[in-house]
UniProtKB/TrEMBL annotation:
<dbReference type="GO" id="GO:0016094">
    <property type="term" value="P:polyprenol biosynthetic process"/>
</dbReference>
<dbReference type="GO" id="GO:0033850">
    <property type="term" value="F:Z-farnesyl diphosphate synthase activity"/>
</dbReference>
<feature type="binding site">
    <location>
        <begin position="34"/>
        <end position="37"/>
    </location>
    <ligand>
        <name>substrate</name>
    </ligand>
</feature>
<feature type="binding site">
    <location>
        <position position="84"/>
    </location>
    <ligand>
        <name>substrate</name>
    </ligand>
</feature>
<keyword id="KW-0479">Metal-binding</keyword>
<feature type="binding site">
    <location>
        <position position="202"/>
    </location>
    <ligand>
        <name>substrate</name>
    </ligand>
</feature>
<feature type="binding site">
    <location>
        <position position="33"/>
    </location>
    <ligand>
        <name>Mg(2+)</name>
    </ligand>
</feature>
<feature type="binding site">
    <location>
        <begin position="208"/>
        <end position="210"/>
    </location>
    <ligand>
        <name>substrate</name>
    </ligand>
</feature>
<dbReference type="GO" id="GO:0045547">
    <property type="term" value="F:ditrans,polycis-polyprenyl diphosphate synthase [(2E,6E)-farnesyl diphosphate specific] activity"/>
</dbReference>
<feature type="binding site">
    <location>
        <begin position="78"/>
        <end position="80"/>
    </location>
    <ligand>
        <name>substrate</name>
    </ligand>
</feature>
<feature type="binding site">
    <location>
        <position position="50"/>
    </location>
    <ligand>
        <name>substrate</name>
    </ligand>
</feature>
<comment type="subunit">
    <text>Homodimer.</text>
</comment>
<keyword id="KW-0460">Magnesium</keyword>
<feature type="binding site">
    <location>
        <position position="221"/>
    </location>
    <ligand>
        <name>Mg(2+)</name>
    </ligand>
</feature>
<feature type="active site">
    <location>
        <position position="33"/>
    </location>
</feature>
<comment type="function">
    <text>Catalyzes the condensation of isopentenyl diphosphate (IPP) with allylic pyrophosphates generating different type of terpenoids.</text>
</comment>
<dbReference type="InterPro" id="IPR001441">
    <property type="entry name" value="UPP_synth-like"/>
</dbReference>
Length: 253
């Protein structure tokens, strides 16, 4: 180990030891952005960028386990991404399926699909449902795999589910309008039953949410990191936690 690596490790340990366990976010959402730009910056193929990004996921989950995060939502593929070239999508779905299989095989995490499964290839949708079933009773970290996910689509799906539920009970539109509140919609979101995200991290330097957890992020803290996702380091994660701990959450304006 070189001097630079040694100094980095010392700094990393010091940073982690400075974190207050009482100020660790319960739910962290991560927009895994920058795989394509990472590949271009290293003169690699786009699929190599996606593969490098996939390889980083286990590291992130290990870091979350170490500090006591309870829920992680990983935005792996948006509904807008489904418009990418067919050959890139085919390779990307193959990589994503590999990630889901690895998470399921690890036996350490509960894998929960978050997104519109009907928009995905049949093999991907089946695998996500299988992972959900197979890991349902695994204790520990919940990993929301946001694949084919869009915040507006999620809210539309929640409202649609709510309407179907009340229609099956014979509730009229007028009766539903009288009682409808935000909790009724929250109960039909993809993440129902989970705490809303305390901290949202986006890599690659972009400073926007792009619809990620649009409903749930009303009171979230945001952290934007310049590093492309494949280059995201543990020290970057710890800095995000340090930034979160230093903020005073007001849950309002």
């Amino acid at each position: 180990m070189g001097l630079r690596d040694l100094l980095y490790r010392v700094y990393e340990r010091r940073l982690q030891s400075s974190l207050n366990p009482q100020q660790i976010p319960r739910h962290v959402g991560v927009i895994l952005d920058g795989n394509r730009r990472w590949a271009r910056s290293y003169a690699k193929r786009i699929t190599e960028g996606h593969k490098a990004g996939a390889d980083k996921i286990h590291e992130l989950l290990d870091w979350c386990d170490e500090v006591g995060v309870e829920v992680v939502t990983l935005w792996l593929l948006s509904t807008d991404n489904l418009n990418r070239p067919r050959d890139e999508l085919a390779a990307l779905f193959e990589i994503i399926e590999g990630v889901v299989r690895d998470l399921m095989a690890a036996g350490r995490w509960r894998v929960h699909p978050v997104g519109a499964l009907d928009l995905l290839p049949d093999s991907t949708a089946r695998l996500l449902k299988e992972a959900d079933e197979a890991t349902r009773d695994v204790p520990g970290l919940v990993v929301n795999a946001a694949i084919g996910y869009g915040g507006r689509r999620e809210i539309a799906d929640a409202v649609r589910s709510l309407l179907y539920e009340h229609a099956s009970r014979g509730t009229s539109i007028e009766e539903l309008a009288e009682i409808l509140d935000v909790e009724h919609i929250a109960e039909h979101l993809y993440t129902r039953g989970q705490p809303d995200p305390d901290l949202l991290i986006r890599t690659s330097g972009e400073q926007r949410l792009s619809g990620f957890l649009l409903w749930q992020s009303a009171h979230s803290e945001f952290y934007f990191c310049e590093a492309y996702w494949p280059d995201f380091r543990k020290v970057d994660f710890l800095r995000a936690l340090r930034s979160y701990a230093a903020r005073q959450r007001r849950y309002g304006v």
